[in-house]
Amino acid sequence: MDRWFRTVLLGAFFFPALVESLVRHYNFSVVLKNTTKLCATKPLLTVNGQFPGPTLYAREDDTVTVRVTNHVTHNVTVHWHGVRQLRTGWADGPAYITQCPIQTGQNYIYNFTLTGQRGTLLWHAHISWLRASIHGAIVILPKRGIPYPFPTPDKEKIIILAEWWKVDVEAVVNQAAQSGFPPNVSDAHTINGHPGPVPGCSSQGGYTLHVESGKTYLLRIINAALNDELFFKIAGHNLTIVEVDASYTKPFQTDVIFISPGQTTNALLTANQGIGKYLIAVSPFMDAPIGLDNKTNYATLRYKGTPANPPTILTSVPPLNATPLTDAFLDSLRSLNSEKYPAKVPLSIDHSLFFTFAVGVNPCATCVNGSQLVAAINNVSFVLPTMALLQAHYYNIPGVFTDDFPGNPPITFNYTGTPPSNIQTTNGTRLYRVAYNSAIQIVLQGTAIIAPENHPTHLHGFNFFVVGKGRGNFDPEKDPQKFNLVDPVERNTVSVPTAGWTAIRFKADNPGVWFLHCHLEVHTTWGLKMAFLVDNGKGPNESLLPLPNDLPKC
Ligand code: C2O
């Protein structure tokens, strides 16, 4: 058992009144470290020398402080992906959105309270591509004495899926930026830090999930990969999904999990098969005609008492373009929507937005073909400023951003058909501004410009309800009639299907500047991002808290 957890349990036993909610302190040192699990030619950027990084454990209502100290030459920030950060935007972490980076030798204390959330989330670096190796799990346990709304598991296991490059990821990004071409795909997928078969690397052994016959396990599965949506399967075993993105769901059984970068999925696994070894397969999903990355990684589920060297029971791997599997999984997700955990879906809307997601090509004098790949929302390729947007907003500094982000694309066209002849995008640091507590609906429309692609889209500062999704162009007359406004899944990252659309709703009850972007890092880099500016409300607890003294300077 985790050390602090034991201390907390002891504390709860002797001083029940004192431990209602706690302040949990963590220290994160960003250091270069060689990890024995990987045949690294270069040391990795890590937190505390660990890959994946340390797990942050807390309970709902706890306050967490994390002192991040930067001991490497790269600038660093850390984002607590999915943590609501109510009024504490300063602790959210995206570089140049809510803070300037922590420079070499400096530190910054992230200070936030976990309000109204319980489940699994992840933390990761939020600058350039550093989250490749700087990431870890966040486990938010329910309040003391409050059980899970599903049978209590015997044990819990964290499973972190990621991607690994043999070279410094910064070199990969820089080379792509200079050439105008797409960046190189990763050299391996990892499962809790273990790579699959990597050419030129002697195997360091895969991850083993040890189980005991008859017991039930809560798997906390995290996709921390940069650019790959993934399938997760265990031979011979079904999984019961009970939570996604730290929101409880109606339980349902499946033999395959679909999980996008930035998403988390909690699943119950019962060890109810014969003693032995079973294959766990993690494989990518890509239904665009551009799939290059087809690396499958494997781990092993091993029952206690399995004799030495038994044959491993195998499972089939879903095809790379298994779109129907993704639909079946996503369509099964529903909010628990119980008395204790109601789904508070906004029913009347103040801002109805339509965002087109596109990859395009812009001229680039220094690039190899005189052009470079870009990406945009409503034709705006978002440009990061050189100081933090939240600071500029707080101090009213002019010239850093404008608040005229378009709520609709500049021209209407057949989004999922033949693209318009001019696919050049405009650059801008444009925010969409709303009053405190506005109800917002966004239809995220994928386009077929260059190639139709799936975009896992993440919104900072809020959970949203996924009220609808479909293929082709969104029909504003017919499609809203089919929206689920009763028990839609609540999450912080959602897939916009290839050549299709997804509709989300949320209440802007959190003042600050909040990033929205494709969580495929390749698309974020190209400009597939924007931000909301939510003004302070008038009530007593409706304003952004003052900025902390140690907030880094640019
Ligand atoms: Cu998980 Cu803006 O990121």
Summarize this structure as a short list of keywords or feature phrases:
554 residues, mainly beta, Immunoglobulin-like, 3 domains, seven-stranded mixed β-sheet, binds CU-O-CU linkage
Structure description:
This protein has 554 residues and is mostly beta strands. The chain folds into 3 domains: 6-141, Cupredoxins -  blue copper proteins (Immunoglobulin-like); 155-331, Cupredoxins -  blue copper proteins (Immunoglobulin-like); 351-542, Cupredoxins -  blue copper proteins (Immunoglobulin-like, Sandwich), CATH 2.60.40.420. The chain is 8% helix and 37% strand. Helix 4 links the parallel strand 24 (380-382) and strand 25. Mean pLDDT is 93; it is low at 1-17. Bound molecules: CU-O-CU linkage.
In short:
The chain folds into 3 domains: 6-141, Cupredoxins -  blue copper proteins (Immunoglobulin-like), CATH 2.60.40.420; 155-331, Cupredoxins -  blue copper proteins (Immunoglobulin-like, Sandwich), CATH 2.60.40; 351-542, Cupredoxins -  blue copper proteins (Immunoglobulin-like), CATH 2.60.40.420. 8% of the residues lie in helices and 37% in strands.
